[in-house]
């Protein structure tokens, strides 16, 4: 990238053309070892026969996918009907992750806008402030969150103290607590890309629109939002995708009464079930789903640009 | 991904150890054995001790099956897991006469059902799993499993269960008076229905913070291990550990000799070391459980003898081990567990 600037030429890759293969090698090796190989192993395992108490037997089987989509009753001897259990678990995770993303957007967008409209010297400080809580380990932050939200925690003490509530609000072990936990875990992933987009936005455009008698709402909707949309989309993806597979917040804040995608998969490897092919299959289905969502976003993006 | 990492770590360890002598690699539960005891062994036998930890019997099994076998010399599985590991061929046999202190094992633990004749293991610590009730929140009788599965209104919605299929299912079997590995369809359907009903009263499933939720008061009832309940009480929670008349779960952790142990000689020395009363008593004093070795009395913290969690009352139900089901039966129990948590 820097090559283009150095030579001032029109093509940025000319300088390193000969060495390009070699320069890309580390990236490909890293991707290959850390991303492609594990996914390939997972894909293969999902089509193998399960070994009792963990492990696989090297025989082709669709058993894992059958278990995911086919309900055969408590004793496994009924004809196949649609299995809603896992669809329900996936839907719950998608819903939780979606709510957390929405919450992050509602809080994150004004925050990012606020930071981007400060004088340049202050911005660095604000960005720095946003990231400070994230120096602390995620587990500790999640546990701390639980202590804040508890029935006898500071939040409820405050609300009952000022007379707003008579009974403490039960937040811990509810879906809302999970959404709050996910929102708090991933908020900077929403703020930072939007901030980057708003910072690049040319505010003269807003002024021009106002000069032409556009109300403030229209300026926001027709001028600002379309310009910073890539930042918003990136932020949403960065919050939604990790929320989908997360199991720390659901376990600690939600009480783990119901499986989420993450805990369902974990159970197949570390729990009694010991069903590796099924864990692999559930991971593959999750991966496919995320890929489809990303593809839809990418497509829309491409359409909007052309 | 995890498997790959485990395998890579195992390979790295094996490679590093191939030439090493005077070493012992222990695979152990977290926060269980005092470091001073490991240091003592290290000094007495001029052996370098390396320890890795795990947090559940199932995690231990998964790791060994994913390729870590051949890396470690000894591990500390619970009763039913000894049986499973033996079935899976993960354990080495201790020949007659290889352990000098084998005679120190208390007679009642010398021939347990999960390892007949103690051919693979020695006793480590044992205790029970039941539940504890906060006495500020409830002052009625608690010697019944109804507290967990059909609680009085005062406790409904304030119950934490262990997030572990084995412990929940075994306790449910005791509650209903059915076998742990039932194959009777009517019993299994009733078990499934009973758990669905009971779940409405449960606030959470959590093993890692089973003690903390009782201390903080977030839960009024918690399924819990006896040692954890004792610690929670010491930390100021006004809780009472229950011994239900329907029965409760007994467990025993055991030191096993792993198959393909790279330092088999040292592993046997370590097992002999842990059969000496003074050494195993150090573990008991630290973890607040009970050992299975003769003659530990003089070395124990006197407080332990009075600890209510380790001394069931005369009218308590029977303590039972978690049973190992065959594959077909286990699959039904897996299904019931999934139904419960879906």
Structure description:
The complex is a heterodimer of chains A (306) and B (342). In chain A, a hairpin with a 5-residue loop joins β1 and β2. The N terminus of chain A is likely disordered. Chain A has 13 helices and four strands. In chain A, α12 packs antiparallel against α13. The radius of gyration of chain A is 24 Å and the shape is globular. Chain A has one domain: Orthogonal Bundle (MetI-like fold), CATH 1.10.3720.10. In chain B, strands 1, 2, 3, 4, 5, 6, 7, 8, 9 and 10 form a ten-stranded mixed β-sheet that branches. The chains are: A mainly alpha (306), B alpha/beta (342). Chains A and B meet through α2 and α4 of A and α1, α3, α7, β6 and α13 of B.
Mean pLDDT score of chain A:
88
The portion of residues forming beta strands of chain A comes to under 5%
Number of helices of chain A: 13
Tally of domains of chain A: 1
Compressed to H and E, one letter per element, the order of chain B equals HEHEHEHEHEHHEHEHEEHHHEH
Largest sheet of chain A: 2 strands, antiparallel
How widely separated are the two ends of chain B?
A: 25 Å
- In the CATH hierarchy, the third-tier topology of chain A is known as MetI-like fold
Radius of gyration of chain A: 24 Å
Helical content band of chain B: 40-55%
Question: What is the chains' assembly state?
Answer: heterodimer
| Morphology of chain A | globular
What's a concise summary of this model?
The complex is a heterodimer of chains A (306) and B (342). Chain A has 13 helices and four strands.
